[in-house]
Every structure is written in structure tokens, then in C-alpha cells.
Amino acid sequence: MGNPLMATLTTPSELAQRRPVFRAGGRFDRLVPILTVVLAILVLWYVFAVILNAPGEIDRAERVGHPLSFTQTITATMDARRPVLPAPHQVVAELWKTTVATPVTSKRSLIYHAGVTLSSTLLGFALGTALGILLAIGIVHSKALDKSLMPWIITSQTIPIIALAPMVIVVLNAIDITGLLPKALISMYLAFFPVAVGMVKGLRSPEIMHLDLMHTYSASRAQTFWKLRGPSAVPFLFTSMKVAIAIALVGAIVAELPTGAVAGLGARLLAGSYYGQTVQIWSALIMASICAALLVVIVDAVGKVVTRRMGVQP
Amino acid sequence: MVNTIDSTDAISDPFAAAGHGARPHPPHRSEKVIEAKGLDLTFQTGDGAVHALSDIHLSVERGEFVSLIGPSGCGKTTLLRVIADLERPTGGTIAVNGVSPAQARLARAYGYVFQSSALFPWRTIANNIALPLEIMGFGRADRKQRVRENLELVNLAGFEKKFPWQLSGGMQQRASIARALSFDPDMLLMDEPFGALDEIVRDHLNEQLLRLWAKTKKTVVFVTHSIPEAVFLSTKIVVMSPRPGRVHEIIDCDLGEDRPLDIRESEKFLEIAHRVREGLRAGHSYEE
Ligand SMILES: Nc1ncnc2c1ncn2[C@@H]1O[C@H](COP(=O)(O)OP(=O)(O)OP(=O)(O)O)[C@@H](O)[C@H]1O
Ligand SMILES: [Mg+2]
């Protein structure tokens, strides 16, 4: 039924109006506030490094009989051997030394340790995400599971992981399960929660009208799941996976503490505090944050690509 | 053959009878597509019962274009949803194609068009139109052909790869009509499909719908607030009145099959419109 009048309603100009508007200077606008905050943190860090390290340095100088002038004190706090709070450039130097200047295969390489922690993080994250999705599917499709599982899921997260981790690790070690898996299980324990909660919300997010539409087609539950509930839940999934991967890393680090593990960022933290190596502690800490940020950014980027392919309005 | 509302439970396998891609032929033993007798529906809500439909008698013949018109809240949507098995009546009987609404739904008796297009935002226009086909198990080649045909039917050829947000409201609504038509149901149930569109777009879509109806001989049940729209499109206008919703008057609308837009200036058109307006007014007045 070719109606020329209809055709005029669907001219390309109608489409052109709906194209996203390009925003100029968006990147620069975003960078300025971030850099400002970074700068403020660095300034504060230096100030506190001086304040916290000064008493120790003054003490030591007095003990050897060479009292320090004001400027000498400041300089000393910037380069203390065992600072209470290492100055940022000390941490950067240590990071440089243990990443770029050390081969990855060496036990002294921070990249090696990060790799150990990351592998259990990723395994735990994958397991946790799978578990979270399965639980959510069960909860959304069964009233009984909703009633019986949800309270337990919430209770599980009220147990402090720092108390639970040692028990799990020790018990698993006792039955000869060691290495990657016990750590991954702790990560999974933390990671499944946001995914389960987010996916329950996501799978329940379709509009009533869309559900009604599926009903008019006499769609089965499985069809409604694959064609409606699942796609609707995708944005929720990525939001909760961003939280999940960050806490999976926390779980992996915590899981490295109780056994006095020899490798991993947690082991570095433990060894550092054992020997009062604050610079080592801080560089491990910074490394952990870098890993967390990278992981979150990667999940976010994958999420953006997926939702873009699903036709989300840019 | 009229099923009581208690026996609306489903046939076990909706697609067994249909096979792949093939639509079961509607039972010809009854020319009555919809037959409602003494239909009653009360919603139980948190703050009391809402009597939405009361003693509705309605019969729709094959090939008719029936409009439901009435003030807001008089139960037009509810009645349409009962026909579509989206709502269960609390009293009376209803038969669709001679069977219960649930059985009719399983036999793909109707395509439903909502007030908003209800397209899935993550599917392209072509994939949106293919949605019911995928669910109903049409083969890939068949799906492709039906999508193309129905896009052409609603004048959306060339837009198959666009996502819904890239289309205007009128185009989206046309896509949703194409989706409802894609599996070739014998009946279209439309709930104010053009309610949110401006008058000019609405006029064009009305013309298109009318031609589509003349060409396909489908039965249409059409909810609207607009008197001219109802008179222009219908063969029969059901005037409803509110609280509780009931059928106030049924007005025949015999303007013939060929209805150019300017038929709306004709004497006969104005006379029917006048009767509908009077009916709406009378239905309202004995409320107060
Ligand atoms: N799911 C529901 N639960 C409770 N009450 C409902 C429900 N759906 C509709 N109603 C009530 O039933 C009555 C009829 O509603 P309905 O939507 O059928 O009216 P309508 O004629 O379609 O109105 P409109 O023209 O505004 O769309 C209204 O009073 C409404 O509040
Ligand atoms: Mg309505």
C-alpha cells in the first residue's frame, strides 16, 4: 500500500534529527576535575609524610648527636629508610624498581605477585558471577526459592570475610586443597552477592506491557527468559559485575593473608608489615588499586560495547 | 459453543497443532468471532474492589471493524484484555472463535497492538517484527520473507536495521502493527494505537489501517477516544459508559468500504458522529 503521503513522513531528515549530538571538549572537561583531585591528594600526602615522619627522624638525629635544622628535617622525612608514611616519590621509585626494573619471573617482581592475585581474582569473579546469575534465575522463577534463598544470601554477607577467610583456607588446606582454588572461593563468596542482587532486579525489570506482549504470543517461560528478561537484565549485570570484580580482588588479597602465602599482593602486604617495610606495603597497596581500577574499567568497557551492540541510544 | 470462564485453561501444547510456520485454520463453524454474554469483571485492589466491567453483551462477526469508545476508566482496555486473555472475567461467558480466550490465544487468533509501540529497544525493527515469529517457531527463511512483506505493508521498507529510538513515534507504532500482523492472525486487537500521535500522522495511519483492513479482511477491535476516528474506521461503534463499565449503545456505521479522508465532511458521517456524541453524553449523564 504505497502511499506517497506516508513516504513524506519518513524522510531522512526525520532520522537526522535523532542522531546523537556530538559534544565538543568532553574529554578535557572530564580530565580537569580528576587532575585537581589527584593534585590535592598528592599535596596532602606530602604534608602528612612530613608531619608523621618528622618526630622519628628528629629522634634518630638527636641520638647520633646531629640535631637537624628545619629544612634538613623536611629533606629527611622525604627519604626516610623506614618511614611511618612513605612519601609518594618513594612509593613510585619502589613501584618502578619492582615492576619495570625487575624481570617478571623474579619473586621480587610486583607484576608477578599481582599476576598471582589476579588469577585467583578472575577465577573467583567468574565463579561468583555464574553463581549469582544462577541464583537470580532461580529466585525470579520460583516463589519458594525467593522466600528461602534470599535471606541466606543476605545473611552470608553479614559474616566478616576477614573472620571467614582463615577458616575456609585452613580447612581446605587440611584436606589438601591449596593454591588457586581456596583463594578463588573466597573471591567468589564476595563476588556472587552483587551479581545475584543485581540480576534479580534486572530479570524483574521488564515492563508489564512487554510481559503482556509475550503472553499474547503464548511464549513459554524459557522464551520469555531468553528474549525478554535476559536482555533487559544486561545493563544490571554489568553494573553489578563492576562491583563484583573489585570485591573479588579484595577477597583474593584477604585470602592470601591467613596462610602466610608466599606469593600475591596479600603476601607482599603481610611480609611488608612483618618487617616494617612501609614502602613495600604502600607499593603493594597502590598496585592493588591499579589492578582494581583496571579490572573495573575493563568490565565497564565490555559493558559499553555489549550495550552499544544491543542498540542502546548513545 | 461457548466456554464458561472456568474452563479457560490451556491446551497442553500450543504449537503441536500448528506445526512449523503454518497457521491453523480458524474454525469456520462460527462466523461470530467474539461472543460475550453478561461479562463481569471486578478488580480486587488494596483499597477495595473496582467494578470495571458490568453485564457486557457484545458480539463481533468475522471481518467487522468494531470500535470501543467511551470516557476514561469505562473499561475499554479491560474488555480488550479479556478478549486477549490478559485478564480473566469474574462473571459471564466469553468465546473467541468459538473457544475460550486462552484457547484462542494459543491458536494465535489475534495480534495485539498496545497504546505505545512496546518495541524491544535492543532489537532492530526487523528483529522486533520477527519476535512473534521466533516464538511461534517459524523457519528462518519464512521469517525473513514475512518481515519484509509486513514492513512494506506499513511503509517501513528500508528501516529494518534501525533501532526503535531512531524512529519517530508514528513509525514505531507502524512497526508494532507490522509485528502484530507478521504471523497473520485473523483478528487485530488495538488499544488506542494512535492515541499518542499528532492529528496529521493519525489521519494517515487511519487511512492506511482502513486499506489494510479492506485488503486483509481481518476482524479489528479498536479502542479509541476520538469520535471522528471511530466513525471513519468502523462498521460498528460500541459506546461504553463508566462506573461500572458497560455497553451503553451499539451504533452501526455503514459508510461502505471505500472511505476517503473527506468522507468526514459528508452528511452521513456527521450524523453518525452526532449519534455517537449523544450516546456518550447520555451514558455519562445518568451517572451524576
Ligand atoms: N489491574 C487493575 N487493577 C485494578 N484496577 C484496574 C486494573 N486495570 C484497570 N482497573 C480499573 O478498571 C477501570 C477500567 O479501566 P480501563 O483501563 O479498562 O479503562 P479505559 O476505558 O481503558 O480507560 P482509558 O480510556 O483511560 O484508557 C478503571 O477504574 C481502572 O482504574
Ligand atoms: Mg485504556
UniProtKB/TrEMBL annotation, chain B:
InterPro entries: AAA+_ATPase, ABC_transporter-like_ATP-bd, ABC_transporter-like_CS, ABC_transporter_ATP-bind, P-loop_NTPase. GO terms for molecular function: ATP binding; ATP hydrolysis activity. CDD domains: ABC_NrtD_SsuB_transporters (cd03293). Residues 36-263 form the ABC transporter domain. Keywords: ATP-binding, Nucleotide-binding, Transport. The keyword Transport applies. It comes from the Bacteria. Pfam families: ABC_tran. PANTHER family: ALIPHATIC SULFONATES IMPORT ATP-BINDING PROTEIN SSUB, TAURINE IMPORT ATP-BINDING PROTEIN-RELATED. Belongs to the ABC transporter superfamily. This is ABC transporter ATP-binding protein. It comes from Pararhizobium mangrovi.
